[in-house]
Design goal:
single chain, 496 residues, alpha/beta, Pectate Lyase C-like, 10-stranded parallel sheet, 9-stranded parallel sheet, 26% strand, calcium, transmembrane helix, Pectin_lyase_fold/virulence, signal
């Protein structure tokens, strides 16, 4: 009997250790991403320092004699002040890549690559794109800095699927991207999208689309996002105007990280921005996003952003309208709100900036949501929680992030430069989700899957690997049964 008992005890010990190691390894891979920053607070402080330095330069120049060009360019906005003060910026367009801040500051785009001039606004062939079109440019394997020969409206036939190391630079032209699918950044890295209008994006798909010069494949139906970011990193979206899309204006899901969304103008939309695939997708705990110097304007309802997991820094934005809430979240995201202006609607039931989505207060009371130097207008109020209730962030506050008093100056150029900041004059055909609009059914093979528990393996396309897979309950059960069967077989052996 003793040998049997010893074998049984050893078996249970082996089972416990094996499963413990298995769960620990799975938790480790699900809770971290290879490219997330190990100290997000350091990134936050660097953003604050860059803002304070730009504001100081502006203040120092104001009392002195005027300097040609300086009065128009120095705003205190560190991104714009980095390049707009150079009257010859067009001769050195790629300097823009040095101007990013926040978690997406390392996005190179097409820096170091050749310039590709888009001369043709058509989008006829998804499998063999015409040279000179935007679709032909973004699928190339080499780094490219993509500019436009003239102003144009590019009406997409299906999703515009990017390859890595690309910059869309719309400066000097009035560029509109609209139509079916719009922009997809899936399993790519180092993309900059700058100074373009994106609107009226509709679901599309169930067709073959090329993603690289050597690969084309079947795409299911897309959601109709303006910009869909999936399993991607080092992404910078700057000076864009987004509105009237079917699903989200910008969605980032499936382990995407190292993202900055800045100087953009959001209008006329219900669910503006989703960060995180679903509450159960643990890899999104490594998502890190900076949202800076944007204007959230007319006709917006909610999700500015709506966060699942991750670390989200919302800094120096102007929120002038929402109908439900501004910032929402679930599954314990960290929300760091600094130096924003929140102007509440007249509706007395919609004054709160924050919303914990479908979560009991006993659960979210420990979530780290904090407000620092924000300005609350017309009865707006932010409900902090967790560590955000304490004063332990004195180190971060010591670099004076409270620049919300300068919010007009910091966001004065949000949107597309050189023309109307929003898309209100450009909307000529339907398809956008507006107040109270419902989303069309997209079937079971949605490409972005941002709203539910979509199957990632039905969405793999183009180069790059899938994000870390999650530990599934069936896998755990099978492993346990195998070990138990081995133990039973050992117990059935005759005593030695």
């Amino acid at each position: 009997m003793l040998p049997h008992a010893s074998i049984l005890l050893f078996g249970f010990f082996f089972l416990t250790v094996s499963l413990s190691s298995f769960f620990s390894a799975a938790a480790f891979f699900n809770l971290t991403l290879p490219h997330q920053h190990p100290d997000p607070e350091a990134v936050v402080q660097e953003v604050q320092r860059s803002v304070n330095a730009s504001i100081s330069r502006r203040r120092q120049l104001l009392p002195g004699p005027p300097i040609i060009g300086q009065a128009q360019c120095l705003t205190g906005n560190p991104i714009d002040d980095c390049w707009r003060c150079d009257p010859n910026w067009a001769a050195n367009r790629q300097h823009l890549a040095d101007c990013a801040i926040g978690f997406g500051r390392a996005a190179m785009g097409g820096k170091g690559g050749r310039y590709y001039v888009v001369t043709d606004s058509s989008d006829h062939d998804m499998v063999n794109p015409t040279p000179g079109t935007l679709r032909h440019a973004v699928i190339q394997d080499e780094p490219l800095w993509i500019i436009f020969q003239s102003s144009m409206v590019i009406k997409l036939k299906h999703e515009l699927i990017f390859n890595s190391y690309k910059t869309i630079d719309g400066r000097g032209a009035n560029v509109h991207i609209t139509g079916n699918g719009c922009i997809t950044l899936q399993s790519v890295t180092n993309v900059i999208i700058h100074n373009v209008h994106i609107y009226n994006c509709l679901p599309s798909g169930n067709t073959i689309i090329r993603s690289t010069p050597t690969h084309s494949g079947w795409r299911g139906r897309s959601d109709g996002d303006g910009i869909s970011i999936s399993a991607a990193r080092n992404i910078w979206i700057d000076h864009c105007a987004l509105s009237h899309c079917t699903d989200g204006l910008i969605d980032a899901i499936l382990g995407s990280t190292a993202i900055t969304i800045s100087n953009s103008y959001f209008t006329h939309h219900d669910e503006v921005m989703l960060l995180g695939h679903n509450d159960k997708y643990l890899a999104d705990s490594g998502m890190q996003v900076t949202i800076a110097f944007n204007h959230f304007g007319e006709g917006l309802v909610q999700r500015m952003p709506r966060c699942r997991r991750g670390y989200i820094h919302v800094v120096n934005n102007d929120f002038t309208e929402w109908q439900m809430y501004a910032i929402g979240g679930s599954a314990n995201p960290t929300i760091n709100s600094q130096g924003n202006r929140y102007t509440a609607p007249m509706d007395p039931n919609a004054k709160e900036v924050t919303k914990r989505v479908e979560t009991d207060e006993r659960e979210w009371s420990d979530w780290n949501w904090r407000t620092d130097g924000d300005i609350m207008v017309n009865g707006a109020f932010f409900v902090p929680s967790g560590e955000g209730l304490s004063m332990q962030y004195a180190k971060a506050s010591s670099v004076e992030p409270k620049s919300a008093a300068l919010i007009d100056q910091l966001t004065m150029n949000a949107g597309v430069l050189g023309g109307p900041r929003d898309n209100s004059v450009s909307i000529s055909y339907g398809g956008g989700a507006t107040t109270g609009a419902t989303k069309p059914a997209t079937g079971g093979s949605s490409n972005s899957g941002g709203g539910g528990d979509g199957d990632f393996f039905g969405m793999i396309f183009g180069s790059g690997g899938a994000p870390p897979t999650q530990l599934s309950p069936p896998t755990t059960m099978i492993l346990s049964l195998v070990i138990i069967l081995i133990l039973c077989g050992m117990l059935s052996l005759p005593s030695l």
